[in-house]
Amino acid sequence: MAQGSKNHFIQLNNEFSKVVEASFSSKNSPKISELFHFVDDLNVWHEILKDKEDTTILISAIKEYEFSFQAALNGQYRYAFTAQRYFLEQVCRYVYLSTNELYLRHWKLGLKDISWGSIVDKENGIFSRTFIRAFYNEVEEEGTHMITLSSKLYRETSEYIHGNFDKVVDMPDKLGFDNQLLNKWLDFVETNKFITVFLLTVRFSKGFNSIELDQVEDNIKDELGGIEEFNLLYNG
């Protein structure tokens, strides 16, 4: 019995390898590599922030971002979408709690739940004018667009968790490469990357010294260079 179970998982691993090969043989190969490289950027942010903030939640988010790639490149697309929602939620929660040590301590103790609704609340959440104005007032007008983007991503990725009918029937009947699902997942990852860099830059960049700013310059300019106000960080 044990040998039969072992053989099953060995065969499964072989199937995973085929999906990896197919994924990197597709037209999406450059985008997969580019977006996976964001793990390195996230680790740079973490290195800068770890001595300034409690980065427990950020570490969790980075791990989930990596797992999302593992799932997608193994043909486990439902879990890849689910992991992207968790990544989004953790990044947003990290930024939200970075401004309130009491809430953070209560959350760690299990005394307070931090709901998605409170995180993205239009009046006091992380995309509100009140929040953005406190840390990077030049881009407070961007909040409306960002909350729309984030809420749409959260809603669409949640459908894979809740098992909505159209998402269930989208999933392949058997393990294998699915270019359409890979495309859709990569679009979600790309959006998540943009949201994440926006939030980290708004919340923390004005507290960085010149050396720290240099470390995240490429990442900020690549993602946010189209928003003129962020270029102020490097034109001063």
Q: Which spans of ≥5 residues are poorly predicted at pLDDT below 50? A: none
Q: Give a short account of the largest sheet.
A: none
Task: Summarize the amount of helix as a percent range.
Answer: over 70%
Please give the oligomerization state of what you see.
single chain
Computed structural class: mainly alpha
SSE layout and pairing:
Blueprint: H1 2-25, H2 29-36, H3 38-49, H4 56-72, H5 77-97, H6 101-108, H7 116-119, H8 129-136, H9 143-162, H10 165-170, H11 179-204, H12 210-224, H13 232-235
Describe what you observe in this structure.
Helices cover 73% and strands 0% of the residues. It is mainly alpha-helical. The N and C termini lie far apart (68 Å). The mean pLDDT is 92. The protein is built from 13 helices and no strands.
List keywords for this structure.
236 residues, mainly alpha
Write a concise synopsis of the structure shown.
With 236 residues, the protein is mostly helical. The protein has 13 helices and no strands.
